[in-house]
Amino acid sequence: MQVQVSKTSTGLTVVTESVPGVRSVAVGCWVATGSRDERPNEAGAAHFLEHLLFKGSERLSAREISETFDAIGAQSNAFTSKEYTCFWARMLDTELATGLGLLAEMLQRPAFRSGEIDSERRVVVEEINMNEDDPSDVAMEAFIRTAFEGHPLGLPVLGTRKSIGAMSRDDIDGYWRRRYGSGTVVVAVAGNIEHDRAVDLVEGLFGCWEAGDGSHDPNPPAITPKVHVVRRDTEQLHLVYGGESINRTDDRRLADGVMHHILGGGMSSRLFQKVREERGLAYAVHSFSMRFSETGAWGIYVGTTPANAHTVMEILTDEIRHLVAEGVTGAELERAKGHVRGALALSMEDTNTRMIRLGRNEIFGLPHLSLDERLARIEKMTRTELADNAARTLVGPRVMGAVGPFESKEFQGYVA
Q1: Of 97, 212, 348, 379, whose CB is crowded by the most CB atoms within 10 A?
Q2: Tell me: the pLDDT tens digits for 89-116?
Q3: Known catalytic residue: 50?
Q4: 145-169 pLDDT tens trace
Q5: Rounded distance between C-alpha atoms, residue 189 and residue 355, angstroms
Q6: Dihedral angle at the C-alpha atoms of 191, 197, 202, 205, nearest 10 degrees?
Q7: From CA 254, how far away is CA 111, in angstroms rounded?
Q8: Which residue in the list 17, 38, 42, 50 is annotated as catalytic?
Q9: What is the pTM of this model?
């Protein structure tokens, strides 16, 4: 693992990982902004911008951008979260200058042409419609809004049909000018690349870009027990049940991930065995954690027949209680360690996955650990660490978001 980090003269951060023996290179431009950084008139602007920057710059049309990516055989896309936005491309190593040049052009000189804004506005509304037709997505959104109610982290990444419909060109341009700039961007590159060449390319392609604002509102949310059921006459109740967890820089994050693998991360996990294999109460059941700058959340997703809803909830609460009271077994810990070792090794074989790890670590100030360093930390992990983590993260206030033929009050007893 050969990770190197440099600052350019314009303030951009460049982080690279050289991967000998491959002919591909993946590059991502990570912008330290997301839905939590939007003002009321900008709800959904971070994600809207993700779309609009592909619609053309002052120098290139949307068609020219897509045709050039196609001509060099590149894969390209973008994704938006609550705290960052990433524009990426993966291509043959000899085409890095062209691919990175397109990303630099898109980010620095967006055109925001009225016709393209209106066209893409309709596309984003269709994306919102699609998500609202998926009850599992609606349940997750209800969980997040309930957990972080009244806090910027509770805002939906996509915005709403109303906010997207009302957003003007000035709103979009204002958000871009405020949040995008050299001081808010990390350029991550993984593959067949020399660090100095990547730095030289970024220096030449990004010019004298102004800094931009990469700060976030640091106030942590206060999670209170609450249930939010979106009532629909669905064939299944889709529910997400959980509470507050650790933030993204907490030293317990590796232990937290292993704990959730044991609880509900795979086919041998407690929840999969209890809910699906032994009782046949659900097709999909899993636990997860999400981490942000100052806080985090853990949750369990289940889709089950409405008649089985309370049986499933009793199993979930029992398994959480047992994990907190008794910890994990030695066999469970060894299986989880083996899973993490294998997943880490497989992830090292893909340049895009390496680039994503580089970008996230750098933008949030996390250490760039080698595979051997991460494996060593996993091997040292003990049952006591996991028990302590469970006792700290699984015992706080609970919240629930769900979609199905119920009223919220029918599940209030599980969060009180």
Answers
A1: 212
A2: 999 999 999 999 999 999 999 999 999 9
A3: yes
A4: 999 999 999 999 999 999 999 999 9
A5: 6
A6: -110
A7: 42
A8: 50
A9: 0.94
**CA triplet 31, 36, 42: central angle to 5 degrees?**
90
Residue 358: what pLDDT? Answer: 97
Measured between alpha carbons, how far is 266 from 323 in angstroms, rounded to an integer? Answer: 16
Give 234-237's long-range contacts (Cβ < 8 A, gap of 24+): 234/135, 234/403, 234/404, 234/405, 235/305, 236/135, 236/303, 236/304, 236/305, 236/306, 236/404, 237/303, 237/304, 237/305, 237/306, 237/309, 237/402, 237/403, 237/404, 237/405, 237/406
Structure tokens at 128: 């919102």
Three-state DSSP class for residue 343: helix
CB of 36 closer than 8 Å to CB of 216: yes
Q: How do strand 398-404 and strand 226-231 relate by DSSP bridges?
A: parallel
Which residue, among 345, 337, 338, 347, has the nearest Cα to 386 in the 3D structure? 337
Helix (H), strand (E) counts: the chain:
15, 11
Residue 319 identity (one-letter amino acid): E
Stretch among 90-104, 129-143, 333-347, 397-411 having the lowest mean pLDDT? 333-347
| Structure tokens belonging to residue 39 | 């003002």
Cβ of 150: how many Cβ atoms within 10 Å? 10
- Encoding tokens for residue 107? 């980010």
